[in-house]
Request: fold
Amino acid sequence: MRALVPFLPLFLLYALSAQGGEGPPVAAPVRPFPVTLSTFEPAQGEPVLVEVSPLPRADSVVMIWKGKEVPMKKDGPGRFLGLFGVDLLEKPGKAVLSFRAAGDGEAFRFDAEIVIREKDFPVQEITLPKEMTQFDKETLGRINREARRLAKRFSRVSSPPAWSFPFLPPVADFRPKGFGSRRVINGEPRSPHAGVDVSLPAGTPVVAIAGGVVAFAGEQFFGGNSVVLDHGGSVFSIYYHLREYAVSEGQNVIRGERIGAVGASGRATGPHLHFSVRAAGGRIDPSLLFSLPLR
Reply:
């Protein structure tokens, strides 16, 4: 288990104020607030836990990553937690993580620099029958509609996080494989595998990894019987190829609640769970969530 890494104040924090509501904000340097990350050098596909303590009486903090504003979870007086993910295709190099805090009638902004490391992912060559890789116009239309519908859900930033530590693996016998694999299907390169696969007998219970709301529960062409949970703070967990799902859209779920069972629905060659997580838009290796520092 890695410890959170405190950030030394190499940056200036500014209190933003406008005189009489006219003209641009005036930047006045004030003392920096503590920022702590699980790592300041995350790899592609890695989740990052963030803790900030901006003001003793701060009532809100927003984390800004890749242009997305994400509300943080209040975890005691003046302390907030957040979670973002470095996408598995994120460009290596320097990036900026920003924060906005409000309290005592003042607004504060803080920019922190992180360094994204490149990660080597395996190449997975798969041979499938043509009927599983070539689709008619009607099927392609359905595939595109389903992709747009999920993308719209993932773009939503809901309420502050409903999750809490520790996250719970979705199945009791959790032996994931395949995250980030660069898939070559019938000799043709395809999109990387944005989740993990867990091979288990059909009917194995699947549970929610954290509290949240069911953002989607239904049948899809590729995913078959599928469930998407919105855990707040722009964190979503995704469960595909279920034999059946036991929840409905809009339903509140708690950590460990049964949401379905392992199956082989959709485009699956055998019983298994496809499990993935998006955090602030980043497609991450979900198995890494279970080794983040506990709070």
In short: The chain has two domains: 5-116, 123-291.
